[in-house]
Description:
By secondary structure, this protein is an alpha/beta fold. The chain contains ten helices and eight strands. An eight-stranded mixed beta sheet has the order 3-4-2-5-1-6-7-8, with helices on both faces. The longest helix is centred in the middle third of the chain and has 18 residues, at 164-181. The chain is globular. The two termini are 13 Å apart. It binds adenosine-5'-diphosphate and magnesium ion.
Amino acid sequence: MAEDPDVVAEVSEKGGVGKTSLTTGLIAVAAEYGLRVAGVDLDPRATLTDELGVSNPKKSVNDIYFVDPEKRPRDPAEIAREALTRAGKHWPSNAWVLPAVRKFGNRETDGTTGMEFRLKRALWGLRDLVDVVFIDAPPRPGGKIVGSALIASTKVLMPSTLTKDGYLGVREAMGTIEHYTVPGGLNDSLTIAGIVRSIVPTGKKYTKVQKLWNGRLQERFGSLVLPSILHDYAVREACRTGSMPITAAPGREAKLLVSGYREILNHTLPDLKEKL
Ligand SMILES: Nc1ncnc2c1ncn2[C@@H]1O[C@H](COP(=O)(O)OP(=O)(O)O)[C@@H](O)[C@H]1O
Ligand SMILES: [Mg+2]
């Protein structure tokens, strides 16, 4: 019997800390293993969607969350199957996305009953189509959309830059996550896979301030800080610009990032290859 997909959320309550980059990197390496992978874009800026080479999708996460009060609500599981879109031409054919659109930004303030549970049900609808799901969460402190991601996930990864924002983004996200994972909470089987230090400068560009925030992260979160570090390499931006997976990019820096993403994936989902 097929197992349910693993669902990994990339969460921080700050923007610009590497959430989308980590999500695309993990999708690229999981797809390279030959697994059926889906990215879920919960950020109305649609950066993940764009990087996965999808534009103007017919159906999006907005259709999964939106309930028209005039009509009978549709099952999110069914909508998810319609919204699942194959990633663009540079991506392997086993990479998919539940795309975001700008108007998804309106959902955060909706009064729709049970909206926080719709993503979990949506992903249940994809259980025979995908092996692993990565959710790119928006940087909204304690919002309903982040809540829906925490309810739908099995694991959380928290990227952090070595900056005050990086640190605060993780600290605040930890606080939010605890509300869900307390015994009897809305998702008490959710586990934190770790904190990923991201966009970390090398050589002389690694400053005292960066060192300070690295120390603070380690002091406060201890072994939750994963050993793999994602360095600041220009090839990352080239991938974003070209809507291309890092696994297809040439050069040493791309290789280093790919090995970082692989280590993080293997740590987060050690049994993943058994799904092949
Ligand atoms: N390892 C990296 N090296 C260089 N630039 C990076 C790296 N990771 C992310 N970036 C860049 O930093 C910016 C913020 O990253 P992003 O993943 O979009 O963060 P978030 O999703 O948290 O807002 C983007 O322009 C992205 O391309
Ligand atoms: Mg992002």
